[in-house]
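Tutorial handout. Part one gives the primary structure; part two gives the three-dimensional structure as tokens.
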Amino acid sequence: MVAEIISVGTEILLGNIVNTNAQYISKELAKLGIDLYFQTVVGDNADRVRMAIEQAMSRSDLIIMTGGLGPTKDDLTKASAAEYFGKKLIFHPQAYEHVKKKLESYGIHEMTESQKTQAMVPEDSIAIMNPEGLAPGIIMAKGEKAIILLPGPPKEMKALFEKCKQVFICKLSNRVIVSINIKVKGPDEMPLSEIGESPIADLLGDILDHENPTVATYAKEDGVLIRITASGKNREEALEIMKPVVMEIADILKDKIAWVKEED
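Part two.
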């Protein structure tokens, strides 16, 4: 299963906001054992959003889109995704009641025409009610391809991602991915020449060529981070797969290691 993230929003392209949504989704997909090869950011332009969807669908099985689900004219995601799948937008009574009640909880008792559009969803899709906001999450599938639409505000996105994970995403993978991080001591503890990324990589040698688990080194301001990542049917199996490699690295580096932690 290969996934791809499309983040919609001109404000991301302009650097006005940091794309924390993509970071969150990437980590969650990794935990589920779903591969992620590409991320795309596209502005609020209908043609470019459609182009991004078409390109993503040509190389990935699951597309997760964030942003562009609001009631204003520049919120184009839902219509663009529906058009790609050849689906009409239809009235969803449950979504309408949800939006109505949410607005009433905010002290708003008359719904505008724009707000009513949030109760329109693509036909034959699954609408997931938003516990933190108005716009529902949407799941659409066609053959072996699927797309999930999530709102842009991080609090809403996370709440809906968790719901979509339970009802749909978890069923797409039969494995998990687990990572162990090893931190090599920084320059305060030993000469910089001994703890740079290149010297550490040289010490690890062929260990860096493993495929499961994979081993990678990362240069940090206070030293070097080594990440060992394994894929297994469950967390216990993944940890067992990486155990010999972790022990081998520990034996090579010995007192150069500051700490060893499982990644959250």
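Part three, for discussion. The first strand starts at residue 2 and ends at 8. Residues 129 and 136 are 5 Å apart (CA to CA).
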